Amino acid sequence: MLSKKTKYGIKALTFIARQKRGIKVQIATISEKENISHKFLESILLTLRKSGILGAQKGKGGGYYLIKEASEIKMTDVIRTLEGPIAMVPCVSLNFYEKCNDCPNEDTCAVHKLMLQVRDNTLNVLKNTSLADLV
Q: Cα–Cα distance between 47 and 69 in angstroms, integer?
């Protein structure tokens, strides 16, 4: 299940992406328009800034803005930044692989086989969807 952090992060990014290029958006504006707690949104946007998805400018006329074009921001990057692994179980994760303690053989494990398909299909959708596609 998608966390509220990730859901709100995507909502905030789409809000920012809808603005004219170069326009900086304040947290208060996003919070009000997207009905997201200001404090929670602040934490989310900071995470996205640290990951290189957003930039920020302090002071008068400041706010958050996209560092790249919306078409270059893939949902795989957003989900991994805010949510962590995309795979539902660690034994099929591409970036966060861990062997399952209760599984003697991944090659014969029915759960592993199913979750590989889920991971691959999910990745296909996310890597082929950009922020621009959502706007």
A: 18
Please name each of the domains of the chain with its CATH number. Answer: 4-66 (1.10.10.10), 70-134 (no CATH)
**Mean pLDDT in consecutive groups of 10 residues from the start of the chain, 135 residues:** 94 95 91 96 96 92 92 96 90 87 86 93 96 96
Find all residues with CB under 8 Å of 38, minimum gap 6, and list them. 27, 28, 31
* Dist. CA 100–CA 92, nearest whole Å: 10
Greatest extent of the chain over all pairs of C-alpha atoms, in Å? 60
The residue with tokens 């795979």 is: 87
pTM of the model: 0.88
